[in-house]
Amino acid sequence: MTDTDVTLQPKKKGLTRRQKRRLSRGVQYVVFVAAVIAFAVTADWGRLQNQFAQADIAKQMFPDVITLALKNTVLYTLSGFVVGLVLGMVIALMRLSSVGPYRWLAGVYIEIFRGLPALLIFIFVGVAVPLAFPGTEIPGGTYGKVAIALGLVSAAYMAETIRAGIQAVPKGQMEAARSLGFSPAKAMVSIIIPQAFRIILPPLTNELVLLFKDSSLVLFLGVTLEERELSKFGRDLASTTANSTPILVAGLCYLLVTIPLSFVVRRMESKAQEAIR
Amino acid sequence: MSRPEIEVRGLHKSFGDNEVLRGIDLEIGQGEVVCVIGPSGSGKSTLLRCVNLLEEPTKGQVFVGGTEVTDPDVDIDAVRRRIGMVFQQFNLFPHLSVTENLALPQRRVLGRDKATAARIAAENLARVGLSEKADAYPASLSGGQQQRVAIARALAMGPEVMLFDEPTSALDPELVGDVLAVMRMLAREGMTMMVVTHEMTFAREVADRVVFMDGGVVVEDGSPERVIGDPQHERTRHFLSRLLDPAMAEVEEEISDQVGKSGP
C-alpha cells in the first residue's frame, strides 16, 4: 500500500471523531451529576440552613442593611470613583504630554499604584498619613479617607484606560480640529476627550464594579456605627448573632448592584461592536 | 498680480531619511485655483499639509496671506483660521450632529455666540445643498454628503484660502460629482484653492493652473491646457497616460527585466 492509500481510507480501528466527541461529552455529564449528588448527600442541610439562612436574623438586618450599609457602600464607591476619574484624567494627560518628566512621573505613579494591594493603600491613608503628618486632617473624616484611598488606587487603572481611549480616537480628528484653528488644549477638551469617553465607557463601568467591591476595605479603617458599609455591617452582625446569615445577605446586596452593572457593560460592549461594523 | 495668497519658498521636508519634498517653490495668487497632481508618494499631500503646518517643514518658508506660517513665533491657530482644509477621510466629528460640526468650531475658536454660529452654519449647509441633514449625525450620511459637510464646516470659519487633500479619493465613483460641483461653485465665487487631486476632468475645467509633482519636486507648472493637454516632460506624459487609460499601461521595465532574467 502507498502513503496515499493510508490517508484516504477511513480508520478501521479506534473511535471515529463523532464517537469521541459523544464519549467526551458523556463523561463530563457523568462527572457533573456525580458531584452534585455527592454534595447533596454529604452536606448537612439542617446545619447549613441554620448557619446561612435564618429568616429571623435576616429580617433583623432590615432596613439598616439597605438604608445604612448599602447607602454607605454606594457613597464610598462613587466618591472614590470621582476622585479616581479626575486624578486618572490628569495622569493620562501627563502620560501623553510632550514634557518628558510628566510622562515619567505618570508612568511611575501607574506602576506603583497598580502594583500595590489596595488594602495597603487603605492602611497607608487611614493610619500612616495621620501618624506621619500629625495635625493634618483629611477632610470628610472616614468618607474623605475612603474617597482618597479608593481614588488613588483606581486613578492608576483609569489613567491607563483613558490614555488608551484618547489614543484610539483617529489621528484625523486632531488634525481636523487643529486645521480649524483649535488650540491643542481646546481640541483635546471639545473633540478628543468626548470621543475617548464613548470608547472607554464599558471599561470605566467595569472599574466602578471593582471599586464597589474594594470599598469593603473600609473595614480596616475602623469606622463608627454610622459609617459602616455592607461588609463591616454583615460581619458585625454575624459576630453578635454567631451566625453567618448576615454575611450571606450582605453578599446578596453586592450582587444586587454588580450583576446589573455587568449586564449594562456587556450591553454597551455589544452596542459598540455594532457601531464599528 | 498683487502679493500671492500662498507662497512657498525652498520647501524641504524629510521623514527620517526619507526626503519627501526636495525644494518646492510655488506661488498661488488671490482667487486662483491650483490643482496639484502627481503619482502617489510624489509629496503632493505633504506639500499641502505644510501649507497649514500640519506637517512641520524641515527647511524653507511658507507664507499665507502675507503671514509667515513657518515662523516659530507665529500664532499658528490664528493663521489656520484663515485656511480651510478638507481631508480625504472627511474627518467630521462623529459625536456631533451636522449642525454642531459646523457651529462648535465657530463658537470655540472664533468666539461667536450660539445664535450667530447656528445662522452661519445653516447658511453654509445651504451652500453645499445639505440643509435637510442639519440634525443628522455623520455616520448616517453617505461619503459624498460627509465631504460636503466637511467643506461647509471649513467655510463656516470664513477662510481666505481652501486646501483640498484628495477630497474625492475615498468616495464611491457616483458620489464624486456632488463634491466636485461644490468645489466648482467655490472656484466661481473666487475662493483661492489648492487642490491635490486625481480628477483630471476637474483640473482641466476648473483649475487656473496645474502643478505636476514627482519625486518631491515640481516638474511642470502651467495652464491645464499645457500641463494636461501638451505635457513637456516625459514623466508627466507617462503619469497622465497611466491615469487616463490605466488598462493600457505596460508592465514596468524593471519588472519585465527581472522576469526575463529569472526565466529559463
UniProtKB/TrEMBL annotation, chain A:
Family in the record: Belongs to the binding-protein-dependent transport system permease family. HisMQ subfamily.
Keyword Iron: no
Domain ABC transmembrane type-1: from-to ranges: 70-265
Signal sequence segment: none
Database matches in SUPFAM superfamilies: MetI-like
Source organism (scientific name): Streptomyces musisoli
CDD domains: TM_PBP2
Membrane topology: Multi-pass membrane protein
Subcellular location: Cell membrane
InterPro entries xrefs: AA_ABC_transptr_permease_3TM (IPR010065), ArtM/GltK/GlnP/TcyL/YhdX-like (IPR043429), MetI-like (IPR000515), MetI-like_sf (IPR035906)
Entry's transmembrane regions: 26-43, 74-94, 115-136, 142-159, 180-201, 247-265
Predominant location category: membrane
Protein name from the UniProt record: Amino acid ABC transporter permease
Cross-referenced PROSITE patterns: ABC_TM1
Domain of life of the source: Bacteria
Pfam families: BPD_transp_1
Keywords in alphabetical order: Amino-acid transport, Cell membrane, Membrane, Transmembrane, Transmembrane helix, Transport
UniProtKB/TrEMBL annotation, chain B:
Localisation per UniProt entry: Cell membrane
Gene Ontology terms, MF aspect: ATP binding
Pfam families according to UniProt: ABC_tran (PF00005)
ABC transporter domain segment(s): 6-240
SUPFAM superfamilies in the cross-refs: P-loop containing nucleoside triphosphate hydrolases
Signal peptide extent: none
Record keywords, A-Z: Amino-acid transport, ATP-binding, Cell membrane, Membrane, Nucleotide-binding, Transport
Membrane topology recorded in Swiss-Prot or TrEMBL: Peripheral membrane protein
InterPro entries per record: AAA+_ATPase, ABC_ATPase_HisP-typ, ABC_transporter-like_ATP-bd, ABC_transporter-like_CS, MetN_ABC_transporter-like, P-loop_NTPase
Family listed: Belongs to the ABC transporter superfamily.
Protein name (database record): Amino acid ABC transporter ATP-binding protein
Species this chain originates from: Streptomyces musisoli
